[in-house]
Amino acid sequence: MSEHSILVTGATGKSGRRVVSRLRAAGLSVRAASRNGEHVFDWTDRGTWDAALEGVRSVYIVQMDGTKLVRPFVERAVRHGVRRLVLASGRGIDDPDYAKDSGGVREGILDSEAAVRESGLEWTISRPGWFAQNFSEGFFADGIRAGELRLPAGDGAAGFVDAEDIAAVVVAALTDDRHAGRIYELSGPRAVTLAEAVATISEATGRDIRYVPLSVEEYVAELVRQGVPPADARAFADVVEPLGKGTDAYLSDGVQRALGRPPRTFAEFARSTAAAGGWPT
């Protein structure tokens, strides 16, 4: 590995694998690290950290929710001579009223942000909102596959951001020192309701897909009937709650500030995913 290698943790995830692909397309040396990827890295096994950090100068940190492992990892990165950190965080994390947090995720993320800022290294923080890819390969994909997305989100909207835009911002921050010391909140160019999103996906795929709004109680009961433990079902409802309240409908200019161009629209995401055969069937 070159001494200028870039470490990408969470390299098989939505943003991580896109970051790896973009860096390699640019001819850069990348260490793609994850529990089951090219290079073994496990947040819960500190014995994997040193080998991942050896010889790298820039790191994309995709943290493990609900933990405070980033701080000791950053301390070890400093000892290894890492110069630049880019942290994956989330929009609204500095607002305690943004969403319920029954899983205790917010405290860990705030500690991660503080650890990066206090590290003495060059740092950038990416705070994306809801990923558009949640419809194609994540949280909502099963509903899209079934032709019926059932969620307790009412007619709330969100500025869904394309993971390709997130990756482009991260790559810029990893490779260009002009992004040091900046926090980029990322969203799409327009807030989209779930009904609008599903209609857009239907048009792009030629399938009949519909959105069915549920109450929180109905949603939790459905998940429990499917075998989800009640506490986990309630935690899932907490995650969706900001959509129903429209908490994530505000727009951010992070993509424009970081890349000098507007973010991709939800329709562009839907069409490109269809062209690549990426919609669940």
From TrEMBL:
Coiled coil: none annotated. Residues 10-176 form the NAD(P)-binding domain. InterPro entries: Ergot_Alk_Oxidoreductase (IPR051604), NAD(P)-bd_dom (IPR016040), NAD(P)-bd_dom_sf (IPR036291). It comes from the Bacteria. Signal peptide: none annotated. This is NmrA family protein. It comes from Streptomyces leeuwenhoekii.
